[in-house]
Write a structure and sequence with these properties.
Blueprint (H helix, E strand, L loop, with lengths): L2 E4 L8 E5 L10 H7 L4 E5 L3 E3 L2 E3 L3 E3 L2 E2 L1 H22 L6 E6 L1 H12 L6 E5 L17 E7 L7 H13 L3 E7 L7 H15 L1
Parallel strand pairs: 2-3, 2-8, 8-9, 9-10, 10-11
Antiparallel strand pairs: 1-3, 4-5, 6-7
Helix pairs in contact: 2-3
Length: 202
């Protein structure tokens, strides 16, 4: 998997796992990570599945319809990759906070759905329920921010609400922020996630 790693200067030992949206790359979310906490370690990954030449983190059958078998495989692959890089670079795998947008947020959510201690926290911008019918692990050690658009044409509000309910049902500490717009990531959303991050981890 293509990626970049930058060692931070923070005393809290947190590492941001950056996961871009469809067609993005490992550079996309660096400005957002810098805004939220410029001192955190950064592990930014490029999705290794191509859809019409655009990097993604897993295959999909159609818009909003995931290839579940591939999603499960890619989730396990990413989970193993983060552990491998933690060993290589010496960061604490128990202090990883994902920042994901759209497709990247979906695979971050899938990490939460599959592994109890994969993420200490997650900032999920415009995420969907990755898989239906799963019994989620105990997420009482995970704090999650979910940003959503009330007019998002790709993700109905009910989908976001279902994701919130499922995560809360597994004892995650979930904070949601709704903005009036669509699927695009807004400045207000990022600023709100920064406030949440400072309150939660500083």
């Amino acid at each position: 998997m293509k990626y970049l790693f930058r060692e931070g200067k923070g005393s809290n030992g947190l590492t941001f796992l950056l996961l871009h949206g469809t067609g993005g790359n490992e550079e996309d979310l660096l400005p957002i990570a810098a805004l939220i906490d410029s001192e955190a370690n950064i592990l930014s990954v490029r999705g290794n599945v191509l859809e019409n030449g655009m990097p993604r983190f897993f295959k999909r059958v159609a818009e909003g319809v995931f290839d579940e078998e591939d999603l499960i495989f890619r989730t396990k692959e990413l989970y193993s990759f983060v552990k491998e890089k933690a060993d290589e670079y010496g960061f604490d795998e128990q202090k990883v906070v994902a920042i994901g947008y759209s497709n990247g947020a979906n695979i971050a959510a899938s990490l939460l759905f599959h592994y109890e201690n994969a993420l200490k926290g997650a900032i999920l911008y415009h995420a969907m329920v990755p898989l239906k019918g799963l019994t989620l692990p105990d997420l009482s050690n995970s704090s999650i921010f979910i940003g959503a658009g009330k007019q998002d044409p790709l993700i109905p509000a009910a989908e976001t609400e279902e994701l919130i309910t499922l995560l809360q049902g597994s004892h995650a500490n979930v904070t949601s922020f709704w903005q009036e717009g669509g699927h695009q990531l807004t400045r207000d959303e990022v600023e709100e996630s920064k406030r949440w991050f400072i309150q939660t981890f500083k």
